[in-house]
Prior knowledge:
By secondary structure, the protein is an alpha/beta fold. It has a single domain, classed as Ribonuclease H-like superfamily/Ribonuclease H (Nucleotidyltransferase, domain 5), CATH 3.30.420. Helices cover 36% and strands 15% of the residues. The chain has 6 helices and 5 strands, in the order ββαβααββααα. It has helices spanning 53-66, 77-83, 85-98, 133-156, 162-165, 171-180; strands at residues 14-20, 29-35, 69-75, 106-110, 121-125. α1 (53-66) crosses α4 and α2 (77-83) packs across α3. The longest helix is centred in the C-terminal third of the chain and has 24 residues, at 133-156.
Amino acid sequence: MSELKKYHRKGAIEAGCDEAGRGCLAGPVVAAAVILPPRFDHPLLNDSKKLSEKQRQLLRPIIEEKAIAWAVGIVSVQEIDEINILNASFLAMHRAVDGLIERPDLLLIDGNRFKVYHDVEHACIIKGDAIYRSIAAASILAKTHRDDLMDGLHDTFPVYRWKSNKGYPTTDHRNAISAHGPCEHHRLTFALLPRQVRLPFE
């Protein structure tokens, strides 16, 4: 049985919200919103960062099948560069909530900041994905859906090895950017390389 809390406010229709890919150098930011049934539980349910890829992939179809409602929101690299990553994260969550087939009374947001979504109340919870079941479920859906997107982009741009690094600023990813330059899926407003290294196109 999961030790995560079932709800923040008893009796409210709560949607847990979380995003994935905020710290990446490439690819979109993806958010998920999930409304779980009050009795939903699974022994593996936890913050996606504490789970293996296999565990996340096992939980994803269970969450998608059992949830009262779930949806994913995506904000593109171009939008991230235009409005900045913080606003892009908020927008991705808003798009996820837009996609829910049931309107929540309360949004449980993983983190300490959020932009108000219409007239729906929200609560920001630091490390909420390790506290509430609905946020943990959202973290799993956001992570797995984004990983799938990055795996698809890898097939077009294999030199960046996105299947292994998912666009995060790993050494091999930065080395590939240094060797080949950035592509259309890189966030050009981010520091793709350390300051002392010049990009090939400069």
